[in-house]
Amino acid sequence: RQRPQAIASKVMSHSLISRSLLLYAQLITWLALTASICDAFASPNVQVPSILICGVQPSLRSHLDDYELRGLAAIHHIAADDEGLICRLERGDIDAFIVRSSNTVSSELVKRLPSTIGVIGRAGVGVDNIDLEACRDANIPVVTAAGASAVAVAEHALGLMLAVARRIKPAAKSVEDGLWLRPTLTGVGLRGKTVGVVGFGAIGKELAAMCTHLGMKVLVAPVTKETPLSNEVIEKRSQDIAEVRAGAAESLEKLLRHSDFVSVHLPLTDQTRYFIGDKELALMKKTSVLISTGRGGVVDEKALLNSLECGTIAGVALDVFESEGPQLVDDEVLMKLAQLDSTVIVPHLGGHTEESQAAVWDCVMERVL
Question: Which pTM does this prediction carry?
Answer without folding.
Answer: 0.82
